[in-house]
Design goal:
Rossmann fold; nine-stranded mixed β-sheet; six-stranded antiparallel β-sheet; 13 helices; 36 strands
């Protein structure tokens, strides 16, 4: 008997994998997939069965928690207690918007739906595609052990010299630059709004709002959204407003309580990533030190048991952007500069992803800029004995199959604890619409799966070692028209849970119809950790020595045409950090655009009474530097567009020592020249000099 999935043809491959699983299976999946969660009642009912103590000695004690849908057994209906966060693509821009769509921008909408509700969306003739949001990954900066001194007050003296000289003899004062701008931070870990780096001369916090997407201490935001067709930012999270912050700080002084106990956030991590990033962009020690600051805290925690309760995927970034743009209007700010130091490896890496299209549409309006960290997936070799950082750098492969019937093998290494891996692993292979490939998969024990031809799929096939395999060979993706093969390896979530066999898996591509033959493959990175039920390890998989290609490793979010992608420049070494992700995009565009200081950056350390400052390194630190410069540029000239800001940054960049002005895949167009950027921002706003000779016919 056919199951409900047989007719759900509009679901993307990742969403089909989720819909294929029973509630118990998705309970574990939700701990690693930011676009999947269980309804509250179901989660509470299952909590006791999930919290099973484990001795950690036997691999066969993995969890003893969940069952799996066995091969050949179809569900008669999709669960109503599993929710997913999805993007929806409409056939036409004026197609009616179903009530379940929470926000819409042109042909793209976002929705939270139960698996059962997907059937109704699939049956809607106005809908072309339903795609699961991409899971956001924890940022991976390097944190120095030593507690540093406060950053020197003259760190950015070249910007705080009082007057900015501009071509043509015009000067503007820098004393108040930034007061008319909102700096938005979409990040994780909480913002320490009471940190001295965020206080003005009167002791008032310049943090005017925090949308804690996983919180419940205050009411959710209630802002009418002017962009798109769907109404308000309501329904989830906790908005801490400036009045709440002021009250908490005043009461804390009187009662000697922590202001963060009076205006709590759901996550308050010591050395908070978001606090550090905000400090670089807009702290007193940072770039735009007079700007208003607002944070959107994605509900992504280092604690696995927190993850299944909330969504932390790219649809949440869309909501965060809408919130910050509306907040800027509410606060009557002239412009807004936003930093996103989060990322994902998923997608086509060509700017066609729904979140990138949404961002690009929003950046057509003047007075807006968005900077995105390129990512820390640049290291492809160990730097010292025991260094495993290269795993995260071997996430990309590319090659060309020159003719039909010829083949290419990709070595895909699954790690786990050395014997098995309890996380799901995924590879996406993108290639042009003019080509067709067959795909086969070989397990470490030699077991063969496939071949799978174009237009075919294998779903939830159990191997001899109980690894669950799904393969989708899909033609003509609606977002870009290209073809994509997706391979998923999932642990057997039975009694006990049995991980994916560690070792070398082989992906074999064979040309069927070849005109170009070029392809690119990416591994979707999963955060390392231990299963909370089993104590067994999950670690990122990676491409082997003969397969990985050391380029095009930058985050999908940094591939958007109008965002500014930023890589990490080590000022002390006058070189690019080895960990910085590289371009170009899959369609050959020059990304990242710019390098900025991002190594050993001293900035605010959040929620730590023993240390006010911390030094971190990574593209997460470089990106807010550029966001701060962008905020200053917008303060001087609020009519600038994102395209103009990016153009100024590229045009004024300085080459690294020994390099020229040509774009390179690691440094972009060079190192940012902040002073030159500000001068150009003002110059663009000046009237055009008329050289027409007077009195000529």
């Amino acid at each position: 008997m056919a199951g409900p999935l047989d007719r759900l043809t509009k679901l993307d491959s990742r969403l089909r994998c989720v819909a294929n699983g029973a509630t118990e299976v998705n309970a574990i999946r939700a701990e690693q997939n930011g676009a999947v969660r269980l309804k509250r009642r179901t989660r509470q009912a299952m909590a006791s069965s999930l919290a099973i103590p484990v001795d950690g000695k036997s691999l066969k004690s993995l969890g003893r928690t969940l069952r799996a849908v066995k091969r050949g057994k179809s569900q008669t209906s999709l669960p109503t207690d599993v929710e997913v966060s999805v993007f929806v693509l409409f056939n036409q821009i004026d197609a009616p918007t179903p009530a379940i769509i929470s926000r819409r921008n042109g042909r793209v909408g976002v929705a939270t739906a139960t698996l059962a509700e997907l059937e109704k969306l699939n049956d809607n003739p106005a809908i072309q595609l339903i795609e699961l949001g991409e899971t956001l990954k924890l940022p991976t900066p390097s944190v120095a052990d030593a507690i540093p001194l406060a950053p020197p007050s003259n760190r950015h003296a070249y910007l705080n010299q009082g007057m900015l000289s501009v071509a043509g003899g015009t000067s503007v004062s820098l004393d108040t630059v930034g007061e008319n701008v909102l700096v938005g931070i979409i990040d994780v870990g909480g913002i320490d709004f009471a940190h001295p780096d965020f206080l003005d001369d009167a002791g008032t916090s310049r943090v005017i709002a925090i949308w804690d997407q996983g919180g419940d201490a205050f009411a959710p935001p209630d802002l009418t959204v002017s962009e798109g067709k769907a109404g308000k930012l309501t329904g989830y999270g906790s908005e801490i407003r400036s009045t709440d912050i002021a009250f908490a700080m005043a009461q804390a002084k009187a009662s000697k309580l922590s202001p963060h106990d009076l205006a709590p956030q759901s996550v308050r991590e010591r050395g908070s990533h978001a606090t550090h990033v905000a400090s670089i962009a807009a702290g007193r020690s940072g770039l735009c030190k007079r700007a208003k600051i607002a944070g959107v805290m994605i509900a992504l925690s280092e604690r696995d048991y927190d993850r299944g309760r909330n969504f932390y995927d790219t649809t949440r970034i869309v909501d965060g952007l809408a919130y910050l743009f509306e907040l800027a209007r509410r606060e009557k700010c002239d412009a807004v500069s936003i930093n996103i130091s989060l990322g994902t490896n998923g997608g086509a890496h060509d700017g066609s992803e729904f979140v990138s299209r949404w961002i690009d549409t929003s950046l057509f309006e003047p007075g807006r800029a968005i900077c995105v960290a390129a990512g820390n997936s640049g290291q492809d070799q160990p730097q010292f004995d025991g260094d495993l950082g290269f795993w995260s750098g071997r996430v990309h492969a590319s090659a060309t199959i020159p003719a039909a019937s010829l083949r290419r093998d990709l070595e895909w290494t699954v790690v786990g604890n050395g014997l098995e891996d309890i996380s799901e692993n995924q590879v996406n292979i993108w290639f042009g619409a003019e080509d067709e490939f067959l795909i086969e998969l070989f397990a470490p024990n030699g077991e063969r799966i496939g071949p799978v031809a174009p237009g075919e799929q294998i779903e939830n096939q159990m191997l001899a070692d109980r690894t669950m395999v799904s393969i989708y060979n899909r033609l003509s993706d609606p977002k870009n028209g290209d073809n994509c093969i997706s391979v998923f390896l999932s642990p057997f979530m039975g009694r006990p849970v049995i991980g994916i066999t560690a070792g070398s898996w082989k992906v074999r591509l064979t040309g069927k119809i070849i005109r170009s033959g070029a392809f690119n493959a990416w591994i979707e990175r999963d955060d390392p950790g231990q299963g909370n039920a089993s104590g067994q390890w999950r670690l990122p998989s990676f491409f082997g020595n003969t397969t990985y290609v050391d380029n095009s490793t930058l985050s999908s979010l940094a591939c958007g045409p109008r965002v500014t992608g930023v890589t990490n420049y080590d000022e002390a070494r006058e070189a690019l950090a080895a960990s910085s992700s590289q371009g170009p995009t899959r369609d050959g565009r020059p990304k990242p655009e710019i390098a900025a200081p991002g190594t050993d950056i001293v900035a605010a350390s959040g929620f730590d009474p023993t240390a006010l400052w911390v030094a971190m390194s990574g593209t997460s630190m470089a990106s807010p530097y550029v966001a701060g410069v962008s905020a200053l540029m917008l303060s001087l000239n609020p009519k600038l567009t994102a395209a103009q800001i990016s153009g100024i940054i590229r045009r004024t960049s300085q080459p690294l020592p020994g390099a020229n002005y040509a774009w390179s895949n690691d440094a972009g167009f060079g190192v940012i020249d902040a002073q030159a950027c500000l001068a150009e921002a003002v110059r663009i706003g000046l009237p055009t000099k008329d050289l027409t000779k007077k009195g000529t016919a």
